[in-house]
């Protein structure tokens, strides 16, 4: 990938790629990235830095993630890639019948019904236990300090915070009192540059750090969560928390033009990105700004999503194996469906979300691709009193259709949108990448991979390039910087093209590549967010 490091960025918004030798941390908040770098300089490795950055993000970007969310990671260490599934299960006693008895025909977005067991705290602890050099107490210390002492709110964060505040104000039928007390203590969302802090959040992080997350699943924090659920008529119990386990999984891959592209296996949707790449590798892609290139990308993505929304759930309950869905024969059969006109697939209706992604690397060769989320914005709107914990609404993705593979059931992991990515070549690590943002994520992965491998763009250029997103049927949204003439020609092919002025509709990504020849790190960060790369 050496040639990628040298290529000019034709899509530059603010900067070129960043280079370093000893260490690199890339994420959507400068304070969190710098906290990760601080841990590296204290003797921690890339895994420690990832934990520190992730913990800080629960404080300095609460609009997208939190202690009460889920996490996934791909960890490269000692020449091997490891996968971590830190997603939680639905409450043991929830069921379609029980939800209907509460007056719902579909899973609601807010309240206790969509709340699943949070996986974030145990994911941090497990990463630290297996691969970290420092204690969890040391890696969580920067986050604890930011929560207790406060931090100045950044511009894009302030905008999302205000949107969430206005949404909760308008939503009826739910108790958001604890959310307003925690995240809008002055009766409004904090403004740009204002200091926000949460002593409760700091105390919770301390309890997690001092007990290696045991307090969250078995101790005092678990008691508080279970009590809040019971008082509100929720399904989540302390037993559900006690049963939670983080799972080490074997990452899945496809080979794309000599590079191995890796994702976490289902219940994550990373397989959708791999399916699309499996289809697209059957074509020769040399010109990026080409109607034919965009057309084939969009058609492949639609076909991959049709399969994903139909088949993905907890892997043990899927009707087809990952091997079957990623077979060359099946990819060829799906590729044969792509013609000159836009097709109308039978797929779900993707929705937005709130997620954070980070990438880290150190001088020893360790690299981490890490993602965590509360799903939609702050999550369910449920905040556990006295803790600062905002609970995720991941169960919102369950189906109430008893014939659907992702049907709601007790003790089950749902279809999961958050996916970390990683690239290797000839058993050498190239590096971590990710594009957060609900159902945009596999689409962002495909676009970043192709920008890098097919079109030779360096990390910042690969991220800055105008993005597109398939939503449903033939509807495609493109960024306002997307080439207008190509958009017009795509319409002539039958695509329902719409220009979207909101840049954050297209995800937010990070990239770190390592040169196999020199070991030099090259990174890009999201220009559509308050992105930052901390380097050493």
UniProtKB/TrEMBL annotation:
<dbReference type="InterPro" id="IPR043137">
    <property type="entry name" value="GGT_ssub_C"/>
</dbReference>
<protein>
    <submittedName>
        <fullName>Putative gamma-glutamyltransferase YwrD</fullName>
    </submittedName>
</protein>
<keyword id="KW-0808">Transferase</keyword>
<dbReference type="Pfam" id="PF01019">
    <property type="entry name" value="G_glu_transpept"/>
</dbReference>
<dbReference type="GO" id="GO:0016740">
    <property type="term" value="F:transferase activity"/>
</dbReference>
<dbReference type="InterPro" id="IPR029055">
    <property type="entry name" value="Ntn_hydrolases_N"/>
</dbReference>
<dbReference type="InterPro" id="IPR052896">
    <property type="entry name" value="GGT-like_enzyme"/>
</dbReference>
């Amino acid at each position: 990938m050496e040639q990628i490091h040298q290529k000019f960025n034709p899509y530059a918004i603010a900067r070129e790629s960043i280079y370093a030798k000893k260490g690199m941390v890339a994420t959507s908040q400068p304070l969190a990235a710098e906290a990760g770098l601080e841990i590296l300089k204290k003797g921690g490795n890339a895994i420690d830095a990832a934990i520190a950055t992730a913990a800080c993000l629960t404080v300095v970007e609460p609009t997208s993630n939190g202690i009460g969310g889920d996490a996934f990671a791909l960890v490269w260490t000692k020449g091997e890639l490891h996968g971590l599934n830190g997603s939680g299960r639905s409450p043991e006693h929830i069921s379609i019948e029980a939800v209907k008895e509460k007056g719902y025909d579909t899973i609601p977005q807010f309240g206790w019904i969509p709340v699943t067991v949070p996986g974030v705290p145990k994911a941090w602890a497990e990463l630290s236990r297996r691969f970290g050099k420092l204690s969890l107490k040391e890696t969580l210390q920067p986050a604890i300090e930011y929560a207790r002492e406060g931090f100045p709110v950044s511009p894009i964060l302030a905008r999302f915070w205000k949107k969430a505040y206005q949404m909760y104000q308008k939503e009826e039928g739910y108790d958001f009192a604890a959310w307003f007390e925690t995240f809008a203590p002055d009766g409004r969302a904090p403004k740009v540059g204002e200091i926000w802090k949460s002593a409760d959040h700091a105390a919770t992080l301390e309890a997690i750090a001092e007990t290696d997350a045991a307090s969250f699943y078995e101790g005092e924090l678990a008691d508080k969560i279970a009590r809040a659920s019971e008082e509100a008529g929720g399904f989540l119990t302390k037993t559900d928390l006690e049963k939670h386990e983080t799972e080490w999984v074997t990452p899945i891959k496809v080979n794309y033009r000599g590079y191995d592209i890796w994702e976490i296996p289902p219940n994550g949707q990373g397989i959708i990105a791999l399916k699309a790449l499996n289809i697209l590798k059957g074509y020769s892609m040399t010109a990026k700004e080409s109607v034919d290139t965009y057309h084939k990308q969009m058609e492949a993505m639609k076909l991959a999503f049709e399969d994903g929304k139909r088949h993905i759930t907890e892997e043990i309950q899927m009707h087809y194996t990952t091997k079957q869905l990623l077979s060359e024969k099946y990819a060829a059969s799906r590729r044969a469906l792509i013609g000159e006109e836009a097709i109308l697939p039978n797929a779900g209706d993707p929705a937005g979300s709130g997620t954070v992604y980070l990438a880290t690397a150190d001088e020893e060769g360790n690299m981490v691709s890490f993602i965590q989320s509360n799903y939609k914005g702050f999550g369910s709107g449920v905040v556990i009193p006295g803790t600062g914990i905002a609970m995720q609404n991941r169960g919102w993705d369950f189906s109430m259709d008893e014939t659907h593979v992702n049907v709601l059931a007790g003790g089950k992991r749902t279809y999961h949108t958050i996916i970390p990515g990683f690239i290797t070549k000839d058993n050498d690590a190239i590096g971590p990448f990710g594009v957060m943002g609900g159902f945009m994520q596999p689409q962002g992965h495909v676009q970043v991979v192709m920008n890098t491998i097919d079109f030779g763009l360096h990390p910042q250029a690969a991220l800055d390039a105008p993005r597109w997103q398939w939503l449903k049927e033939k509807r495609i949204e493109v960024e306002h910087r997307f080439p207008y003439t190509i958009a017009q020609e795509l319409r002539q092919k039958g695509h329902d093209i719409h220009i979207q002025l909101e840049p954050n509709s297209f995800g937010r990504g990070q990239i770190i590549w390592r040169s196999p020849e020199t070991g030099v790190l090259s990174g890009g960060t999201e220009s559509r967010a308050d992105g930052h790369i901390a380097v050493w």
